[in-house]
Write a structure and sequence with these properties.
Nucleotidyltransferase, domain 5, 17 helices, 20 strands, about 35% helix, binds beta-L-fructofuranose, Rhamnulokinase
C-alpha cells in the first residue's frame, strides 16, 4: 500500500508545503508551495506575521489537493517556543518573535522564583532567553484562557480542536524532563495559570478534519495529524542512520547539534555546557545544544543588501572557499549575535574585543562565519559525546546547511571524523513519515523509518582532510 500526505513546514525565514509519497519500500517528496516568512517590527516589538503564514498554508493546501486529490492527511511543524494567547477561541494579539528583546525581563522574573539549577533539574532545558517560560513571564496571562504554540495554533485554525503536541511542548520549559507531562508544581511556583495549557498529545495523533469553511477553501476535507511539530524533532526523525555512534547537526537558521537518547541526562556538567533534553518523536530525547547557525550568514547578507545591492550568495561562498589568509574564529554562541541587526559590525566588534583579525572583505567575513560555525559544531559534537557517554564516530548534517559544501568539509576537518550530508528537506521528510505511519502506509520504529530515508536520499560523504591542508 502507498499513499500521499502533505507536510506544512514553517521555518524562521520561509515556509513550504510538500507532498510526500510513502509506501512500504517507497519515499519521495515534492514541493508544492514555498513562501517567505518575514517578521514585522511594530512599536511594541518584533512579531510573526501569523495571518500571512496561515493564508499561505491554506493556499498551499489547495494546490496540494489539486495536484494529489487522494491526499490522506496533513501535518504542521514549525520553529519552537513561540505562542499565541487565546480567549474564547480568539487570538489576543499577534505572536512575538523569539528574537524580540522582551524576554530578558522574563528571565529575571522566572529566576527570582526558581533559580537556574532548579529549573534545569525540573525541565532539563538549556538556557535560551526566549524559552516559552521566560516569554510567558512578561505576558498578560490573566486575560487568556488558552496558550497555543505556533503549530498547535494552526491546527486549531484548521480544525477547531485544541491540543499541545508533546515534542514542541517540551521546548516551553513547563514540561517535566522525566515525566513529559506539564509540571504542575513548577507552574504553580511560577504563579502561572495551569488552565491555559492544553491537553498533551503525541506525534501521530489525529486532531480532526478541516472546519467546513477551511475545507471549502482548500477544495475538500482533510484529516490533520500531529507530527513532531517542533521542526527539529521532525528533522531528527529523518536522520538517515540508526547507528548508535551517530551525532547529528540539523542546520538551518540554527545548528542543533547532539545525539538521540532513550532517557534524559540531567547533570550539572550538561547544564553548564548548555545542553538540552528536548522531547523527540516516540518518546526519544533530543540531547543537543543550539549553535547560532546560518543566521550569522543570512543576517550578514541582509545587512549588505540594505545598500540595495543584491548579494550573489553562491558566488560569495565560492570566494570564501578560496580565501587563504587566516581568518578569525569567533564564538558563534556569543549572545551578542542573537538579535536582528548589523551582523558584520557585531562580528568586527567581537574581533576587536578579543584581538582577532577583523575580516577585510565580504569573502573573509563569510569564511570567518563558516569557520566559526564548523568550530562550534565540532565542539558541540565532542561535548554531546562526553556528556551523554556515547561514542560518536559519524556525524550527519541535515537541513539547508547540508548543501553548504564549505561548512560540511570544515566540520569534518575540525572533527577529524567523516560527515554525511543530507537530506536537505529532513524536516519535511520527518513530518511526512510520522503521518504516513499514523495512516498505516509504513510500520515500525524510527529505525525502520530511517532505513527508508537512507535508501531514498543517500547522503553525501565528506572525509576529514589531513591537518596540514585543512
Ligand atoms: C529551529 C528551532 C530550534 C529552536 C529555535 C527557536 O528551527 O526550532 O530548535 O531552538 O528554532 O524556536
Amino acid at each position: 500500500m502507498s499513499g500521499a500526505v502533505a507536510a506544512i513546514d514553517l521555518g524562521a525565514t520561509s515556509g513550504r508545503v510538500m507532498l510526500g509519497f510513502v509506501g512500504h519500500d517507497e519515499l519521495s517528496i515534492r514541493p508544492v508551495a514555498r513562501f517567505a516568512n518575514t517578521p514585522v517590527r511594530i512599536a511594541d516589538g518584533l512579531h510573526w506575521n501569523i495571518l500571512e503564514l496561515y493564508r499561505n498554508v491554506v493556499a498551499g493546501l489547495g494546490a496540494a489537493v489539486r495536484e494529489e486529490p487522494g491526499l490522506r492527511s496533513i501535518g504542521v511543524d514549525s520553529w519552537a517556543v513561540d505562542y499565541a494567547l487565546m480567549r474564547g477561541g480568539r487570538m489576543l494579539g499577534t505572536p512575538y518573535h523569539y528574537r524580540d528583546e522582551r524576554s530578558a525581563a522574563g528571565v529575571e522574573a522566572v529566576h527570582a522564583l526558581v533559580g537556574p539549577q532548579e529549573l534545569y533539574a525540573a525541565n532539563g532545558l538549556q538556557h535560551l532567553p526566549f524559552n516559552t517560560v521566560f516569554q510567558l513571564a512578561t505576558d498578560e496571562l490573566d486575560l487568556a484562557d488558552t496558550m497555543l504554540l505556533i503549530p498547535d495554533l494552526l491546527n486549531f485554525w484548521l480544525t477547531g480542536n485544541t491540543a499541545a503536541e508533546r515534542t514542541n511542548a517540551s521546548t516551553t520549559g513547563l514540561l517535566g524532563a522525566e515525566t513529559r507531562e506539564w509540571d504542575d508544581e513548577l507552574i504553580a511556583r511560577l504563579g502561572m495559570p495551569r488552565a491555559i495549557l492544553p491537553g498533551l498529545v503525541d506525534a501521530g495523533t489525529t486532531i480532526g478534519g478541516l472546519l467546513p469553511s477551511v475545507a471549502a477553501e482548500v477544495g475538500r476535507n482533510l484529516s490533520v495529524t500531529t507530527v513532531g511539530s517542533h521542526d527539529t524533532a521532525s528533522a531528527v526523525v529523518a536522520i538517515p542512520s540508526s547507528r548508535d555512534d551517530t551525532a547529528y547537526i540539523s542546520c538551518g537558521t540554527w545548528g542543533l547539534v547532539g545525539v538521540e537518547l532513550e532517557h534524559p541526562v540531567i547533570s550539572e556538567a550538561g547544564r553548564a555546557a548548555n545542553f538540552t533534553n528536548e522531547g523527540g518523536v516516540d518518546g526519544r530525547v533530543r540531547y543537543l545544544h543550539n549553535v547560532m547557525g546560518l543566521w550569522l550568514l543570512s543576517e550578514s547578507v541582509r545587512s549588505w543588501e540594505r545598500g540595495r545591492e543584491v548579494i550573489d550568495l553562491p558566488g560569495l561562498l565560492a570566494q570564501a572557499a578560496a580565501v587563504t589568509t587566516p581568518v578569525a574564529v569567533f564564538d558563534a554562541d556569543d549572545p551578542r549575535f542573537l538579535a536582528p541587526g548589523d551582523m558584520p559590525a557585531r562580528i568586527a566588534g567581537y574581533c576587536l574585543e578579543y584581538d582577532l583579525p577583523v575580516p577585510a572583505s565580504r569573502a573573509e567575513f563569510v569564511r570567518s562565519i563558516i569557520e566559526s560555525l564548523a568550530d562550534a559544531f565540532a565542539r558541540a559534537v565532542v561535548a554531546a559525546a562526553e556528556l551523554s557517554g556515547r561514542q560518536v564516530s559519524i556525524v550527519h548534517i541535515v537541513g539547508g546547511g547540508s548543501q553548504n559544501e564549505l561548512l560540511c568539509q570544515l566540520t569534518a576537518d575540525r572533527l577529524g571524523r567523516p560527515v554525511l550530508a543530507g537530506p536537505v528537506e529532513a524536516t519535511a521528510i520527518g513530518n511526512v513519515l510520522v503521518q504516513a505511519r499514523a495512516q498505516g502506509l509504513v510500520t515500525g520504529s524510527l529505525e525502520s523509518l530511517r532505513t527508508l530515508v537512507a535508501r531514498a536520499f543517500s547522503p553525501r560523504p565528506y572525509s576529514p582532510r589531513p591537518r596540514a591542508s585543512a
